[in-house]
Amino acid sequence: SKAVKFFTITAQTMESFVKSLSEDMKQQDLDSEENQFVLALAGIVTNVAALACGREFLVSSSRELLDTMMHLLGDMKPGLCNKFKVLMLMSLYNVSINLKGLKYISESPGFIPLLWWLLNDPDTEVCLHSLRLLQSVLLEPEVLARAGAEVRETLPFQRIVALSQSRHAELQALAKELLEDLKMFEYEA
């Protein structure tokens, strides 16, 4: 029960942090104690989600935290709080390794539009981890059967093509791999 309380407080803290960001904030103070504290909390969640038992716990007992992270990713402006976004995306990707976790995340209202929103972020790491999460959805037949129509209708194909030409080698390789997956996806449709 203490872990559930901890993750509830973590979700509330992350949400408060994002709400406290001023609208005209151009450059975030990465060294502020608040920023470092929130990054540490996000890092703890990412590490917990990296373990099979942690993924299971998060999807079974801390769905509020998962919902909060998806909501916050959609609320933050492109280019803002990139390290925080990357840690949340890594957590969601880790949770997506668990089939129950992937189903929960992919069934969340607005999940597919959220991925498209994040793929347009100017930060390459945010785009990289968004592509990884998208690939989780595309490679799981049971989840794809449910989300496939929405993915087909709204996929920002040109953005993925542009990412496949990125100078960032890892992002370029993953985008190319995803384009190959998408060819198979269209063939199966």
Automatic annotation (TrEMBL):
Gene3D superfamilies: Leucine-rich Repeat Variant
A single GO cellular-component term on record: cytosol
Xref: PANTHER family: HEAT SHOCK FACTOR 2-BINDING PROTEIN
Stated name of the protein: HSF2B protein
Organism: Leiothrix lutea
Lineage: Eukaryota, Metazoa, Chordata, Craniata, Vertebrata
Gene coding for it: Hsf2bp_0
